[in-house]
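Troubleshooting entry. Yesterday's outputs looked truncated, so today I'm pasting the complete records for two proteins to confirm everything comes through intact. If either block looks cut off, that's the bug. Protein one:
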Amino acid sequence: MYSKNTIIRDNLSHIIFITGGTKSGKSEFAEHLAKKTNKLSYVALSERNINDKEWQEKINLHKKRRPKNWKLIETTDLLSTLSKEHGPLLIDSIGGFVMESIEKEYREWSKKMHSLISTLKKRNSITFIVGEQVGWSLVSEYKIGNTYIERIGELQKRITKISKDNWLAINGRAIKIDDISLEIPIENWK
């Protein structure tokens, strides 16, 4: 589907960005787009917590869906992984990158975010990234929740800006937002 039905914008990275809410189908759609990519590495970006049975069930469902020939990388250190892995990647999901730095002060977070964007822009291989859409509903009563919403929103705007294709998964459907949207001009991006 990717090579035939998507239009890739010139002069951008090799990033295909798929965002959506919980249970929207974003991971399944990213896997669908990536399934014909040779020598793909699947980057599962989360901490291993074997005591969380619900999380383990979710991980097992993801594993069952993926082709057996995909290399699995389980990590919380995306920057290190990107420095070592030069072939095609599917990163699921970028929220893990935000969580890994959630306790850091904004200045340190900002440096890390800019480093990620710079690294992604330099990649020569196709990179599918799954991201969580948050902040469309309730606002967290906790500082950590609001920090997460703010940081993932900022990061995902930047990823969208450098991506060749941007998709929104919602209710089991995928919408190519590049085709039906206008970029909002953002001044003073650093």
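Protein two, checking that the full record survives here as well:
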Amino acid sequence: MSLLVLVHLLINMKYLWKQDAIEHAKQCDPEESCGIIAIKNNQEKYYPCKNISNEFKAESFVIDPLDWADVEDSVDQIVGIVHSHPQDVLEFSESDKYSCKAINLTFYLVSPKSDKIAIIQPDEINA
């Protein structure tokens, strides 16, 4: 097995939940999807959440607090937030960066139109 194939396999293994997040983004398109990445029984899993952003669901997300509470009560640890940009622009907005830094969780960005994922860590943000 080549090193390139091994790296590809490791990347895909690390984000086993990625397809679930992308499928959720496709279901929510043209609105932004949102969800939580959490660890349960030593495995990362994607938990889709309801976007309760009132007026601008195509450009913003707010995770339903009841969904957050349900996930928090059923997992070992919440480790990240996922949302989509329906416009297929995988760049974090200033609001995304501020939120990531404020809640100190990794943010993941997916597109309903591609198989790509963007990642930002709280310590990468100068805010």
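Both blocks look complete. Sanity check on protein two: The chain has four helices and five strands.
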